[in-house]
């Protein structure tokens, strides 16, 4: 714990670490107060693509936690940055929420339901058979399939719900094409996060609730790793994986001295 508390940079997942749906996890306000008090660099790095950093900031503020917009980075922003560098001025057919559409727009990517260069999928409540069929048609016509993240499920105040990879599965099966996933554990997103913090990987820690995204992302990027049991992973689940976090805590509140 002393090694953890001495780190200069803290990268934290959000769902299952900071909140469940619209409810803060106990101890989070005190943890963020400690980060500020100790002059730590910190970033909320989420695989969620539905909300912009401003919307995430306002969501936390409504729950009683006030942090600057600059402390947020999403898989939607990472996806837009990736496509903007790969194919400037490209177009995409998108299934997702406003946070994803806005990130793509800001990166100069146009929305196209006729002959898109890419089909981009993120989380959404408006997932239906019609947009699956449209996505399948575009992929079969040559559009490249992109997923904002590899999460199959995510926690909510109502329990576990399907996430991005589960929504992409019908399109992959129908077309025989595999998606490229931009969010954690893709090193692209982790390197951007470290760059935003301005710290070296050896001086940073990844705190998350998922072994298959957060923890493996931290390990492969050279960060210290902390798994919290306040999200989707249980103590029993850990043993299913061939890798381990350095620390396992009940919640982020355990970090507070």
What is the average of the pLDDT values? 95
CATH architecture of the largest domain: 3-Layer(aba) Sandwich
Order of helices and strands: HEEEHEHEHEHEEHEEEHEHEHEE
Distance between the termini: 9 Å
CATH class placement of the largest domain: Alpha Beta
Low-confidence stretches: none
Describe this structure in words.
The protein is of the alpha/beta class and 257 residues long. The protein folds into 2 domains: 118 residues, HAD superfamily/HAD-like (Rossmann fold); 106 residues, Rossmann fold, CATH 3.40.50. The chain contains 9 helices and 15 strands. The protein has a 6-stranded parallel beta sheet. α4 packs parallel to α5 and α6 crosses α7. It is globular, with a radius of gyration of 18 Å.
Write the layout of secondary structure elements.
Elements: H1 2-5, E1 9-12, E2 19-20, E3 23-24, H2 28-37, E4 41-46, H3 53-62, E5 72-74, H4 75-86, E6 91-95, H5 98-106, E7 110-111, E8 118-121, H6 129-140, E9 144-147, E10 153-156, E11 159-162, H7 164-175, E12 180-181, H8 187-197, E13 204-208, H9 211-220, E14 224-228, E15 247-249
Parallel strand pairs: 1-4, 1-13, 4-5, 6-7, 6-8, 8-9, 9-12, 13-14, 14-15
Antiparallel strand pairs: 2-3, 10-11
């Amino acid at each position: 714990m002393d090694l953890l508390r001495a780190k200069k940079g803290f990268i934290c997942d959000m769902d299952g670490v900071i909140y469940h749906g619209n409810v803060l996890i106990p101890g989070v306000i005190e943890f963020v107060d400690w980060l500020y008090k100790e002059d730590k660099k910190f970033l909320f790095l989420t695989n969620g693509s539905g909300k912009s950093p401003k919307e995430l900031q306002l969501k936390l503020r409504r729950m009683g936690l006030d942090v600057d917009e600059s402390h947020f980075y999403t898989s939607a922003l990472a996806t837009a940055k990736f496509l903007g560098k790969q194919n400037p001025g490209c177009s995409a057919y998108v299934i997702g929420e406003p946070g994803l559409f806005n990130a793509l727009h800001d990166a100069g990517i146009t929305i196209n339901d006729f002959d898109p260069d890419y089909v981009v999928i993120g989380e959404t409540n408006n997932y239906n058979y019609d947009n699956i069929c449209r996505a399948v048609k575009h992929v079969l016509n040559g559009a490249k399939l992109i997923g904002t993240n590899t999460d199959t499920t995510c926690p909510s105040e109502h329990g576990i719900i399907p996430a991005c990879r589960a929504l992409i599965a019908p399109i992959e099966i129908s077309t025989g094409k595999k998606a490229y996933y931009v969010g954690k554990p893709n090193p692209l997103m982790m390197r951007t996060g470290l760059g935003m913090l301005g710290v070296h990987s050896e001086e940073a820690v990844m705190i998350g609730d998922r072994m298959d995204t957060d923890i493996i992302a931290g390990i492969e990027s050279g960060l210290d790793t902390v798994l919290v049991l306040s999200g989707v992973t249980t103590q029993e689940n850990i043993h299913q994986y061939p890798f381990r976090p350095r620390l396992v805590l009940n919640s982020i509140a355990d970090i507070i001295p």
